[in-house]
Amino acid sequence: MKDKHFETMAIHAGGEGGKPGNALNDPIFMTSAFTFDSIETANAAFAFETKDYVYTRGNNPTLRVLEERMAVLEGGSDAVAFASGMAAISSVLLSLLKPGDEIIAHRMLYGSSQDFIKNTLPQYGISSRLLNLVDLSVLKGEISHRTKVIYFETPANPSLEIIDIKAVCSIAAATGITVVVDNTFATPYSQRPLDLGAHVVVHSATKYISGHGDVVAGIAIGKDRDYVQKLKFGYLCEFGGVMSPFTAWLLVRGIKTLALRMREHQTNALAIANYLKGHPKVQKVYYPGLPDFPGHALAATQMSGFGAMVSFEINGGLNQAKELVNNLQLFKLAVSLGDCESLVQLPFAMTHRSYTAKEVKDAGLSPGLIRLSIGLEHKEDLVADLDKALDKAIR
Ligand SMILES: Cc1ncc(COP(=O)(O)O)c(C=O)c1O
Prior knowledge:
Blueprint: H1 6-12, H2 39-46, H3 61-74, E1 78-82, H4 85-96, E2 102-106, H5 111-120, E3 127-131, H6 139-142, E4 147-153, H7 165-173, E5 178-182, H8 187-190, E6 200-204, E7 218-222, H9 225-239, H10 245-255, H11 258-277, E8 282-286, H12 296-302, E9 309-314, H13 317-327, E10 332-333, E11 343-345, H14 357-362, E12 370-373, H15 379-393
Parallel strand pairs: 2-3, 2-4, 4-5, 5-6, 10-11
Antiparallel strand pairs: 1-7, 6-7, 8-9, 9-12, 11-12
Helix pairs in contact: 1-3, 3-10, 4-9, 13-15
The protein binds pyridoxal-5'-phosphate.
């Protein structure tokens, strides 16, 4: 299946062992335990001598379809499904770090990821440093013998900054550091970090992988099969943040249309970014698909599409931004992203509240930054909604 086109793999990869009752679609195995016909077969399953399932916290056929499909789409050897993106991220990081180690992460991350790295990991003796990984000239000098993981999102949430995956990985390779990339914004349709040298990819599958805003889910995909086994049976199983089979089934269903959705999301996003760019009341637009965006050239080399998240700043700062989001009608004021519905939020008042005013300023962003998740409505209706709200909000 690995040699087929993305659209084909998104529909057929995973669960290739056949489906019960010759069903076209995979059933949902809503069962906590699996039965054995003898203690001998049970023993063999517990010893990993057979592929028999034991208990859904460790393995479940519906989850396996999702894991195998995502592994193929990301170009990994295998994957582990989690109850949320944060369950995937925290489990992966704790599986790679021990007391005395250090993690280097990009200074702009999803709020809870930043909070976990900055505040939670140090409580377990793991120190963290948040650096500007857009400028790699400093990275080599910052790495010490204690640095074991480099972690970043690209495009980053909500600044859309682009980080050079290949360049980070070549610096990391020289010192045996594991590189973990959050690929939530791009999805494997537009970017495959493992092909560029990363070791592990994590997703909030709540977003584009689901595509319909009806689940909370996470997944980690690894290049190394032994590491993925360790993540599943040493961390997922023990921490217990397992995904429900029903959620896995919804994701398997959602992934079938990932390519189509991403193409349409991205077409809409470029139209919105261009509209905002030409608006006299808009100060700055952040979208990797705009030719004058600082990360555009790099994005064009490591991505096959520019994603569908657009951030912008308007005249009048935070107060006017608040008025704008209140005046939008089609764009719903909500956290999350990657849904059919277009969403709007103010990250530094909502998802990124863990950032201090100084951290926001140092990253060159404004507290009034507005983040849009461009949905699948008609682009002219989305532009009209923004136009009306911009007219009203800024006097
Ligand atoms: C880039 C990114 N990574 C991780 C997460 C966390 O995922 P979840 O909410 O599924 O735990 C989010 C959530 O918004 C996100 O935007």
